[in-house]
């Protein structure tokens, strides 16, 4: 009887500590999975694959209705200011891609009804490459690219 | 790690421009600790929501490719002086933060 109880106690405490270890190792972190976050698109290692996962298509049309502002030379790849603006009607979302990064998709912005197609942020670039902006409209994907020379990469350690 | 969000919202000619500065490490998960050689776990903001008078104007999905202490600016039609703009974020470890500002 005493032995049996001791066994239960042992089992119980072992189980509890295993869960504790899993939580501290980040395996069971609550809220890790955000329903809308496009996980596959962000994990994609090619621009086309990322666009396919994100927008269902990688066929973009270069358009002067999409304007992308980024420096010609970025001395620090860890902080590259990028501004994307468009005057196209009915823009639904804007994606920012650093073509030379291991996982090229940096960010995707869903635009609400009142939003103007304009976003500005700062991104990391691993090496000299194009920064690509893709604007999703009713009739397809419009894009613009801007080459940025990176003298120190911003993704390595 | 998580700090407050600095927000400026300015209305001009019927358009409100919002500028925000968030405080976050934005760790990609690819870097290694130089002293120990151990990989530094990914820790970055995944989702940012911008609201005007409690109505969502813009939702951003981010990877670890957005720079440390992220800057974000967006614009929307409408917005009067004194109305509120709220920005909130959630990161991949489930932490979150939000802040509000009055449109000026």
TrEMBL record, chain A:
It comes from the Bacteria. Residues 52-155 form the Ig-like SoxY domain. NCBIfam families: SoxY_true_GGCGG. This is Thiosulfate oxidation carrier protein SoxY. It comes from Lamprobacter modestohalophilus.
TrEMBL record, chain B:
InterPro entries: Ig-like_fold, Ig_E-set, SoxZ, SoxZ_dom. Residues 8-101 form the Sulphur oxidation protein SoxZ domain. Pfam families: SoxZ (PF08770). It comes from the Bacteria. NCBIfam families: SoxZ_true (TIGR04490). This is Thiosulfate oxidation carrier complex protein SoxZ.
